[in-house]
What we know:
Blueprint: H1 2-16, H2 22-29, H3 32-40, E1 43-45, E2 53-57, E3 60-64, E4 76-81, E5 84-85, E6 96-99, E7 107-114, E8 117-121, E9 125-128, E10 132-136, E11 143-144, E12 150-151, E13 153-161, E14 170-177, E15 193-198, E16 203-208, E17 223-225, E18 234-239, E19 271-276, E20 282-287, E21 309-314, E22 322-327, E23 334-341, E24 344-352, E25 370-372, E26 381-384, E27 387-389, E28 395-398, E29 406-410, E30 420-424, E31 433-437, E32 443-447, E33 456-459, E34 469-472, E35 478-479, E36 485-487, E37 496-498, E38 507-510, E39 513-518, E40 523-529, E41 533-534, E42 545-547, E43 556-561, E44 566-570, H4 587-595, E45 622-624
Parallel strand pairs: 1-45, 2-9
Antiparallel strand pairs: 2-3, 3-6, 4-5, 4-7, 7-8, 7-9, 10-44, 11-12, 13-14, 14-15, 15-16, 17-18, 18-19, 19-20, 21-22, 22-23, 23-24, 25-26, 26-27, 27-28, 29-30, 30-31, 31-32, 33-34, 35-36, 37-38, 38-39, 39-40, 41-43, 42-43, 43-44
Amino acid sequence: MFKRTFMLTMIILVFVLPTLSLGMVKQINSKEEITNNMVEMKRQMEYLDRGLIAVKVDNGVYLSWRLLGTEPDNISFNVYRNGKKVNHSPVIDSTNYLDHNGSLNSIYYVRAVVNGKEMKPSEKVKVLDKNYLSIPLKKPADGITPDGVSYTYSANDASVGDLDGDGQYEIILKWDPSNSKDNSQDGYTGDVYLDAYKLNGKFMWRIDLGRNIRAGAHYTQFLVYDFDGDGRAEIACKTADGTIDGTGNVIGDPNADYRNEKGRILSGPEYLTIFDGKTGKALATTDYDPPRGNVSDWGDNYGNRVDRFLAAVAYIDGRRPSLVMARGYYTRTVLVAYNWRDGKLTKLWRFDSNDPGNSKYAGQGNHNLSIADVDNDGKDEIIYGSCVIDDNGKGLYSTGLGHGDAMHVGDLDPSRQGLEVFQVHEVPSNDGIELHDAKTGEIIWGLPTTKDTGRGLSADIDPRYQGEEMWAAGPYGLYNCKGQKISDNKPSSVNFAIWWDGDLLRELLDSNRIDKWDYINNQTINLFTAQDCTSNNGTKATPCLQADILGDWREEVIWKTADSNELRIYTTTSVTNHRIYTLMHDPVYRLGIAWQNVGYNQPPHTSFYLGEGMSYPPKPNIYLASNRETK
């Protein structure tokens, strides 16, 4: 267990390092330049409060709070109920606590303890009577298309960001009309809306993307992140004439209507807009790049492949976040990187598979993407399906295995150096299901396929094997990270995985339920079902969002109620003795939350191996954007 590894490391540091020879000390000091470079490459990360949450359970009150990635290893905590400390000694081995004497009327806060001194108290919280926060929603009114078809609205994908700089996340929710379309389908759609809500349920603003933005999973990829480092997140997405920002101002021509007789939008200007997170006001609007150009340049002449969009946040300079907007992945592929700094939107680079020397990058994109520093230079790359674009906008490699629907990037095999990519592919091949090295594209192992493999998942669900287990839709079994088949049976869920209960294994998230894989009997066991809630995006059955929003390092999940009148943020109430800093301060995980709503939603992963037998996770090399002291 990583705690024992950590304690052994501390013993070595205390007792062994002082005995090092002077020559060894000089050798360590000779690396000062490397250390200074690492300090300079610290990443901007958001300031967060404790995220304290209290839930009434059968045997008391369950409490959970954040450990920040910037805090010292020796930090501990005291828990206070109604102003009085309830723990006999500081909590050092976890960031949760079960208060057997707590009640629904109790008020709690926690205080960090560093070197025997108590820090300022956290925010005070009341006790929830259920294991979720409820956010009432303002559902948009029903509508009628120009050809007389009625439609309604349901809550869809969501993201989080600290929109007002108070150290707490807000929810940004996309509303999906019932007539939203896949790009392959003709037909009018209703407008797409983006709403912002505080965790206490307060409605903040609404953006109406207007009639000239079509509704569907491939059209609106919205990014929520603090791009300029002022301590407050912005929203970035594609807009058009008639978009109305959160303060009621219209972008472009309010009367323009570029929809053709098939409901498609294949003409007219396209924009990229940065919105203020606190008000929803449009701060800057520019022409969208990559542009549409000729529709037929993207693989067909009726408007399917031209409107396949992806987007992500990446630290391409290693220090501050940039936004990457993309178009196309079946044939032509174009990515453009921007900075939003000091009130200015600046274009950094443009990658186009049509440019000389880039032909091997055409047709390699997924319905999703991931961001990670795959070459360990401190700067992020864009894992664009079967190819990777380097931080400088140049192609790094292409596996040539083509398009796929699902992909997972992280330290999936901790026995190997660096990160790995598990991917399933649409085009049958000897490596239609495969694991490859994230830095080089080298295929580590693969399975032959004879048809489109639409789903695949990677998660540590069996403690008997080091690393994550992997499986895919179709007539395949369950494999360990070395490519060895460990069972003919596999979980029926191939959608999301979540850290939910008290152990280090990952659970299965599918539809409105969380299951656990019983690796002894090769079957799933239901742990939790969210009553009256439902999932998004058809058979993909994804939540509005899965992220480490509150409490300790375990993840929360946001589902909508079946009538879309309410969002519920569900949290675990399982006590754990594992202590890990908030996953939102891990670079790969935090950026995974930013791209989770993009295309075909995928679950986030961490930059380090998080599973049974893990080592103590390395402290992230970050600084807090707001420069506020940890409370």
